[in-house]
Write a structure and sequence with these properties.
Keywords: Lyase. It comes from Rhizobium bangladeshense. The chain is of the alpha+beta class. The chain contains 7 helices and 13 strands. The protein has helices at about 5-20, 25-30, 35-50, 65-70, 125-130, 150-155, 205-215, and strands spanning about 55-65, 80-85, 90, 95, 105-115, 130-140, 160-165, 180-185, 190-195, 225-230, 235-240, 245-250, 255-260. Strands 1, 2, 3, 5, 6, 7, 10 and 11 form an 8-stranded mixed beta sheet that branches. A 5-stranded mixed beta sheet has the order 4-13-12-8-9, with no helix packed on it. Helix 1 packs across helix 3 (about 35-50). The N and C termini lie far apart (about 40 Å).
Length: about 260
């Protein structure tokens, strides 16, 4: 564990990296005793600073939902971060590439909560019952630290969250079998990635149930109206200024964005 003063210093450094668009040395290298609990505390301090500057928590994101990514990170479970309202974009947006350091895109589904949901013991059917809508989404991930990164670096860095783009059809959670939403991700007219939503822990709601139980352990939960990114079912694709992105989710619509 590290001290509260060191946690605050790490959060301040990450905030500076985000503002100046310059990555910092990994917190795990600066503070060799950094543990998972410290990393989430740093994330919370960073979020508090952003809220103090006018941002609002709009929801949460879940990462490391695939077994392959967990093994690569030497983790046995996902991680999570917060979504801030100033990082929400709609279908058709022109997004400034210079807002990020090294942005990449992932294909996901987003759940919009129709009621509050708390743990413990939350299961997939609880998530489905509490969800009002499911919408196609893209997550822009970004690193504010140097690489390679330990899992503690990723968590402290708000689970690599950069921004979210939503679009396509708004569907109710029981209208289709959301385990089998397929999508292709194209960059500049070339399909770079494809996947199916069952790749997210077997069911897109599984990660959200995990998140609710984790938030309960720290006195939190999900609130009505919040949006939750359920996790990626494709590998991340690098993006840069000038790129035009199209994500096709078949019967549930598509999302198009460009980076300027």
């Amino acid at each position: 564990m590290i001290t509260e003063k060191e946690r605050q210093a790490a959060a301040d450094a990450l905030l500076k990296a985000e503002t100046e668009r310059k990555p910092i040395v990994q917190p795990s290298r600066t503070y060799p005793n950094l543990e998972l609990e410290d990393a989430y505390k740093i994330q919370a301090l960073w979020a508090q600073a952003r809220i103090a500057k006018g941002a609002r928590i709009a929801g949460h994101k879940i990462g490391l939902t695939s077994r392959a990514m967990q093994m690569a990170s030497k983790m046995t479970e996902p991680d999570y971060g917060v979504i801030l309202d100033d990082a929400l974009y709609n279908d058709g947006a022109q997004i400034r590439a210079d807002l990020f350091i090294k942005p990449r895109l992932e294909v996901e589904l987003a759940f919009v909560m129709g009621e509050d949901l708390g743990g413990p013991g939350t299961r997939i059917y609880d998530v489905m019952r509490a969800t009002e809508f499911v919408v196609p989404a893209l997550e822009i991930i970004d690193y504010r630290t140097e690489v390679p990164r330990a899992i503690t670096d990723t968590i402290a860095d708000n689970a690599a969250f950069g921004a979210i783009v939503v679009g396509g059809r708004i569907i109710r959670p029981m209208d289709i079998d959301i385990r089998w939403v397929g999508a292709t991700l194209s960059k500049n007219g070339i399909i770079e990635e494809s996947g199916v939503s069952a790749a997210i822990m077997g069911h897109p709601a599984a990660g959200i149930a995990w998140l609710v139980n984790k938030l309960h352990a720290v006195g939190g939960g999900l609130k009505k109206g919040q949006i939750v990114l359920a996790g990626s079912f494709t590998r991340p694709v690098d993006i840069a200024k000038g790129d035009v992105i199209q994500a096709d989710y078949g019967s549930v619509g598509s999302i198009g964005v460009s980076f300027v």
